[in-house]
Every structure is written in structure tokens, then in C-alpha cells.
């Protein structure tokens, strides 16, 4: 299991030290949520902040684009240091083309899926993606309650991946904590994104270590 703390929940006033803490921790990736205030009802940060994170990060940068028209921005995020770029299936009119674009930039291509979106919509693109990010909360804000239906979706997605021979990883984003981490991994999840649970704890490094050992 890979653990990807979400930098959105960190202390922005001390962003460099937060990234350096993650470098020293047992975290595998650093998850970066990009919100535009259009696709989701919130605005986070953009390309300059992503570039600033990459300057200090020593770990895989997992960029999650919660934005409209992502094809207009993926090249700049690739240049800013992204290793994986995920776009929302709900925001892409030409998803297959978007995935090819990301891969052609030398990044892993991911598909993010909102809670209401059916796994069946991935059937024709699952072999073209490296990662499927299942949203286990409604996107736009951190600290939300985990949606229990997610476990069923993970199992359905795992079945589709095995049936098609896809090598896609399953990522869970939203409400991940010590209580559900093992159950998610047991259901088939490969990557867990944890934000508030990590950065709101008294000892984020210890919290990261605990999640890694739980699952």
C-alpha cells in the first residue's frame, strides 16, 4: 500500500517545512489537490505552488486536477514537477485523448471519479490509465466524512481491472483514517490519500507510520 498525504491539509505558512517533514516520513507520495472554484466549490492553489512544492519534495508528486478543461493545464503541471496527473472523468469530453496527452508528457495518467459516478463508465478507458482515484467524499473540501459505499466501488473497480488486465492502481481520496485504512486495502485499494487525519494530528510523522503499519 502506498500512502499519499494531501498537502492541502498542511500549514501553508510553513509549506517548505511540511514538505520536508513528508520527505522524512514513511509517506510514499505527496498528493496535491488543484481546485478551480468551477468544477468544485473551492479554490486551492495552482501551478506556482505546485512548482514550489516540487522544489523541496523528494517523493512522487501525485497531482489531482479538480478543474474544468484540464487539457489546457496538464503540460504546465508536468513542467512544474508532477509525476502523476489525474483528471476527472466528469470534466473531460475526450477522456481517452486527455490520458494520452498526460502520458505523452512523461507522466502517469490518472482518472478521478466522483462518488455518484458509476465504475461502468471506466470500461473503455481502464486499460489506458495508470491510476483510478475514487473520491470517497464529495470533492472540494477537506475534513469530510467518509462515504461507506466506497468499499463496494473499490471491489467493483478491482474486478474490472482484473477482468481487463489493466495495471491501474486504485487510489482512495477523502476521509481516510486509521479506522478504515485496512478495510480499504483489503477491498483492493493500492494508494490511500490522507489529509486532515495526518496534518491535524499532534505528530504527523507518527500518524503516517501508524497508517502504514495498520494496513
UniProtKB/TrEMBL annotation:
Pathway: Carbohydrate degradation. PROSITE patterns: RIBUL_P_3_EPIMER_1, RIBUL_P_3_EPIMER_2. Its EC number is 5.1.3.1. Keywords: Carbohydrate metabolism, Cobalt, Isomerase, Manganese, Metal-binding, Zinc. One of its GO terms (molecular function) is D-ribulose-phosphate 3-epimerase activity. One of its GO terms (cellular component) is cytoplasm. The keyword Calcium does not apply. The active site is at residues 33, 173. GO terms for biological process: pentose catabolic process; pentose-phosphate shunt. Gene3D superfamilies: Aldolase class I (3.20.20.70). The keyword Isomerase applies. It is an enzyme of class 5 (isomerase). Its cofactor is Fe(2+); Mn(2+); a divalent metal cation; Zn(2+). A divalent metal cation binds at residues 31, 33, 64, 173. It catalyses: D-ribulose 5-phosphate = D-xylulose 5-phosphate. Belongs to the ribulose-phosphate 3-epimerase family. Catalyzes the reversible epimerization of D-ribulose 5-phosphate to D-xylulose 5-phosphate. This is Ribulose-phosphate 3-epimerase. The lineage of its organism: Bacteria, Pseudomonadati, Bacteroidota, Cytophagia, Cytophagales.
